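Tutorial, part two.
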Amino acid sequence: MVIYSHSETSARIGFFILVNSRRRVVTGIIQHGIAVQPTLGVNVVDDRVVQSIEMQLKSKLRGMLVAEVWMGSLVDVAGKEPSVLNYGDGTIALGDLITAVDGEEVL
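Running the prediction step on this input gives:
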């Protein structure tokens, strides 16, 4: 939430936290001493890069193209492989494509 004053005499900036997020963070702090954020442990390739790859392949990639896998994460344990850029010639060896998480299709 941002409140803007046309007279520029006062401006207030505020924020809000969703109740479910707050509950999860507070529970994590109580149980673990830190706020635990859920994550798959993966970084994905930027949409613009994926679109460029799709144009070259003349095919749509349905899902998230893995760019980086965090060691020890769920994705690492599942054996997923990241895409690798060859800086010598600029080619990309495509890694795994995550198409669903817990049965939910990834768009």
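The chain has two domains: 2-32, 42-105. In part three we will examine how such features are distributed along the chain.
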